[in-house]
Amino acid sequence: MxxxxxxxxxxxxxxxxxxxxxxxESVARHDLGGLRPRHPLQRLSxxxxxxxxxANERWLAVCDDRVLxxxxxxxxxxxxxxxxxxDLAVHPDERRHGIGSALLRHLEERAADLGRHSLSLxxxxxxxxxxxxxAVGANFAITKGFTMSLEGAVRACDLDAVDExxxxxxWEDSWSKAEDFELVxxxxxxxxxxxxxxxxxxxxxxxxxxxxxxxxxxxxYDRERVLDEVRRHRLRGDLHLQxxxxxxxxxxxxxxxEIVVEPGQEYDCIQGDTIVDSDYRGHRLGTVxxxxxxxxxxEWRPKMRYVWTGNAVSNTHMIAxxxxxxxxxxxxxxxxxxxx
Length: 340
Ligand SMILES: CC(C)(COP(=O)(O)OP(=O)(O)OC[C@H]1O[C@@H](n2cnc3c(N)ncnc32)[C@H](O)[C@@H]1OP(=O)(O)O)[C@@H](O)C(=O)NCCC(=O)NCCS
What we know:
Aminopeptidase; 12-stranded mixed sheet; alpha+beta; single chain; about 350 residues; binds coenzyme A
């Protein structure tokens, strides 16, 4: 039995930060099978640049200054205040010594102290016997009383493999059904007139997407929260490409999408939210938004190769659009949840 302590991670403690990053890298190589690769700079930048809408706590399991595992609590403060999202992992060479269980106990104690009673995380799971994703996380979670509350799929769009001629045809055809709308694309801060509409889109996104049994409640977005998000992306060194479609006659924002290129990433980037207001569905706005933003990635970063996205498997409309613009299934990931 390894002796270890659970201590807070401080951004000022360089050896501890290095140990934490090394464990995260080992776990990614060992367990995640290449799904959604992250650069260490992404972890570092989110350690030093916090966000107003999430309170973070980071803990390490350490033995003689060696980092064996980590726990990261993310607690929404503006909505969903019953919840803790978390990330928990143990170095592959240090497993089956009770470290994961101790970190999970610590998580449950912290959650109880903070008055939070719902724990959840997104966890990649193998999609077949050939999968390089390990099943250990999901098995561990289930052993510890978690249940699978939303089934999700991970897709990647290989920008080198996209049939651009087919995409041109889809773009033309989509605009023929979207003549009442215009596209506004930008990097970084939206203009003043877009802020309320984008805030509304984020609010709708939080509950319009299929949630299964996940007890996620409506998010509360306003223009300050949108601006905080922009500030955070800028300070972290992210490239934040957004696009909206606007109804020409009323000026209302009818849809929104975003792609984030995190610091250090040359080849992989992340598709964030995409949503079309329910009042405006059926005009191919989702397709227009996705094609426009995906093409802008290459304008900003010509070497970029993969755009990663995740959808609930029941989200058939979004998945159909994703497949049409070039995304292909690469794995599965589910939400696991435990109510305390
Ligand atoms: C999941 C993880 C955190 C477990 O860490 P750990 O330190 O090995 O966990 P513990 O030693 O406390 O194991 C506790 C119990 O979980 C179950 N378990 C853990 N690993 C297992 C495995 N490979 N196969 C089967 N059961 C396993 C067992 O019931 C085990 O008890 P036992 O050793 O007495 O049989 C670790 O494997 C990991 O970091 N995986 C990758 C990251 C991840 O998936 N995180 C999500 C966690 S919810």
